[in-house]
From TrEMBL:
Residues 606-664 form the Beta-galactosidase C-terminal domain. Transmembrane segments: none annotated. It is an enzyme of class 3 (hydrolase). Coiled coil: none annotated. It catalyses: Hydrolysis of terminal non-reducing beta-D-galactose residues in beta-D-galactosides. InterPro entries: Beta_galactosidase_C (IPR013739), Beta_galactosidase_Trimer (IPR013738), Class_I_gatase-like (IPR029062), GH (IPR017853), Glyco_hydro_42 (IPR003476), Glyco_hydro_42_N (IPR013529), Glyco_hydro_b (IPR013780). Residues 8-380 form the Glycoside hydrolase family 42 N-terminal domain. It comes from the Bacteria. The lineage of its organism: Bacteria, Bacillati, Actinomycetota, Actinomycetes, Micromonosporales. Its EC number is 3.2.1.23. This is Beta-galactosidase.
Length: 665
């Protein structure tokens, strides 16, 4: 066993003589796993009553004969043209109220009985056909679930969902605060999906009724989860042991992955960062995907070996970056490193998307050589990291409900973005070199010394009490402006801000000042003066110690950052949108209290991450994201698993530009 290596393979797009060349190249690159059948619904079901698996049979048989393992997709991510023609209700209605016709992908109404029946039947027939094939090691349901539908079927589904959630209209009206603007509902059929035709103006984030929009977003996430479960349940009728997954998209706003996670046998995701300097962001997203399953290793289901094709500008990965980012995924918990795509498509929208094998089929390109070299390294590594866990003592809470509620709110500021706030606090932890778990608000927090809850806008269940418990036993809790504002229905708490977090934080906030991005209010933190932007809460300490103060405007000299003793621990409240230097200063104070620091906290872009194998072996990953070499003293001794070199504590370590070292301690 080893870290799986390969990716999306679409041989149905090519004559079979090309397959022979593909497998020759796969041998060279040490490709051992292929994902097949992702978009072949039209091929395998040419009409409603006809199924033809002959091509897929040959694809799976060839993979098995060549010694490859198969991640077999259900093929349902794009419905066929005949289906849209025979059942036009299957296509979506968009946010603007336009009924779509056949085209693209992700165009199936998740509430359509026809789509649900036929997609499940496709999964059922595939599972029955291939369940006994030992080459099939995983089932891949759908692909990158996304989008929303506002058709009559979804409206009816939404009302059914609401009936189950609220049981009666009195509860719904109270949750949505419908006495505002004469919105009281007296019949379930009066409820409309929130769209550009009903509650919204200027797009999906501007809504008159946040409660309605929030619940519809939740409903869409649940509706697509039901589609996934339709297919998973159909697979389980004949394939009871092979794990089932679907590929997530990291910090994708549209779906609450925490709700999906229990229904995946392992998490998997597609890593397409917005630029080629996103190493900290990627680290956080890997941590988030690992956190979905309580630290269980995940699969990196897709990444490009070179460039994408879906953006206005698609930069090329510099030499060494693909290898470095692949090892970063392994460092954060990946037990599979897979690409999209194995061979470049010759036409349509992804013909210029990067691939292991380009249009010419050459094996002497830089990209192919780098893939082959990575394949050889993964062979050398063997099973050393399989099943290994991350021993994090720091957690960041990530909450889709808070994200949705914050960004559909009218006020205080539409410039404040949930992701940006979370990533700033993660960046500070990443720079300090500490291992981090990114977890839900329902996660067990008892294992952590530090819990960071940036912009925890919505408080659900007993999260406030569990955060108090972290501090009471000696831990530290950090939260920020716009936290503790609303309940699960997006209604304001009828108490001082930050609501149920007030006792832990020892502060009260009566007013807040939102300003344009160019407005700066400096904040003094000890001897350091940093900038703050966007939002400035006016804090009245209720027992908390003042750590940082505003330097301008009528509230100059008042608290911007506070620390409150609670039990044996502390609660830190950051009331201002500090710049990265300010956030990092706060987090270093917190980490120092607990003696938490990575081995190289002051070496820019030298990332470290730890995994602990099932037998207790500790593996320290060192990843140099710099375009220049870095030399540091060894903080631990061990053997570099990639080169076999023995390292002694204190000896100089020379890390080439964009290089990787894995020390088995």
């Amino acid at each position: 066993m080893k870290v799986r290596f390969g990716g999306d393979y679409n041989p149905e797009q090519w004559p079979e003589e090309v397959w022979t060349d593909d497998y020759r190249l796969f041998d060279t690159a040490r490709i051992d796993t292929v994902t097949v059948g992702v978009f072949d619904w039209a091929l395998t079901q040419p009409s409603e009553d006809v199924y033809d698996f002959s091509t897929l049979d040959r694809i799976v048989e060839r993979a098995a004969a060549e010694g490859r393992q198969v991640c077999l997709a259900t093929g349902t991510a794009a419905h066929p043209a005949w289906l849209a023609r025979a059942h036009p209700e299957i296509t979506r209605v968009d946010f603007e109220g336009r009924k779509h016709r056949f085209g693209g992908r992700h165009n199936s109404c998740p509430s359509s009985p026809v789509f649900r029946r036929l997609s499940a039947e496709m999964a059922r027939r595939r599972a029955a056909r291939y369940a006994g094939n030992p080459a099939v090691v995983a089932w891949h349901v759908g692909n990158e679930y996304s989008g929303a539908c506002y058709c009559d079927l979804c409206a009816a589904g939404f009302r059914d969902w609401l009936r189950k959630k609220y049981e009666g209209l009195d509860g719904l009206n109270a949750a949505w605060n419908t006495r505002f603007w004469s919105h009281t509902f007296y019949d379930w059929d009066e409820i409309e999906p929130p769209s550009a035709l009903t509650e919204h103006w200027r797009g999906p984030d501007h809504t008159a009724f946040q409660g309605i929009t929030l619940d519809y977003t939740r409903y869409m996430s649940d509706a697509m989860l039901t589609n996934y479960l339709d297919e998973k349940n159909a697979i389980r009728e004949s394939s009871v042991d092979v794990p089932v997954t679907t590929n997530f998209m990291g910090m994708f706003r549209g779906l609450d992955y925490h709700k999906w996670a229990p229904h995946l046998d392992f998490a998997s995701w597609d890593n397409y960062p917005p630029d080629d300097t996103s190493q900290a962001r990627m680290a956080f997203t890997h941590d988030l995907m690992r956190g979905l399953k309580d630290g269980q290793p995940f699969w990196l289901m897709e990444q490009t070996p070179s460039f994408t094709a879906c953006r206005d500008v698609n930069p090329l990965k510099r030499p060494g970056v693909m290898r470095l980012w692949s090892w970063q995924a392994v460092a954060h918990g990946a037990d599979a490193v897979l690409f999209f795509q194995m061979r470049a498509s010759r036409g349509a929208s992804e013909k210029y998307h990067g691939a292991v094998i380009g249009h010419s089929g050459r094996d002497d390109t830089r990209v192919f050589r780098e893939v082959a070299e990575l394949g050889a390294e993964l062979d050398t590594l063997g099973d050393a990291v399989l099943g290994a866990r991350t021993p994090a003592r720091v957690a960041i809470l990530f909450d889709w409900d808070s994200w949705w509620a914050l960004e559909i709110s009218d006020g205080p500021s539409r410039h404040v973005k949930y992701q940006s706030v979370v990533l700033a606090y993660h960046q500070a932890l990443w720079d300090a070199g500490v291992d981090v778990d990114a977890v839900s608000v329902t996660a067990d927090l008892s294992r952590y010394d530090v819990v960071v809850a940036p912009a925890l806008h919505m408080l659900k269940g007993d999260i406030a009490q569990r955060l108090e418990a972290v501090a009471a036993r000696g831990g530290t809790v950090v939260t920020t402006f716009l936290s503790g504002r609303v309940d699960e229905h997006d209604n304001a708490f009828l108490m001082d801000v930050p609501g149920p977090l007030g006792t832990l934080m020892g502060v009260r906030v009566d007013e807040w000042d939102a300003r344009a991005p160019e407005v700066i209010n400096p904040v003094r933190l000890g001897e350091l003066v940093v900038e703050s932007r966007l939002l400035f809460e006016l804090v009245i300490p209720q027992g908390a110690e003042v750590v940082g103060e505003y330097q301008s405007d009528f509230y100059a000299g008042t608290p911007a950052v506070t620390r409150n003793a609670y039990g044996d621990g502390e609660g830190w409240y950051v009331a201002a949108g500090l710049d990265q230097a300010g956030v990092s200063w706060v987090m270093r104070q917190v980490l120092d209290r607990h003696g938490l620091s990575g081995p190289y906290p002051d070496v820019p872009d030298l990332e470290t991450a730890t995994r602990v194998a099932p037998d207790g072996t500790r593996l320290l990953f060192l990843l140099n994201h710099n375009a220049v070499p870095v030399e540091v003293p060894a903080r631990v001794g061990g053997v570099d698993l990639l080169t076999g070199t023995r390292v002694e504590v204190g000896q100089p370590l020379s890390l080439a530009a964009r290089s990787v070292m894995i020390l088995r301690q």
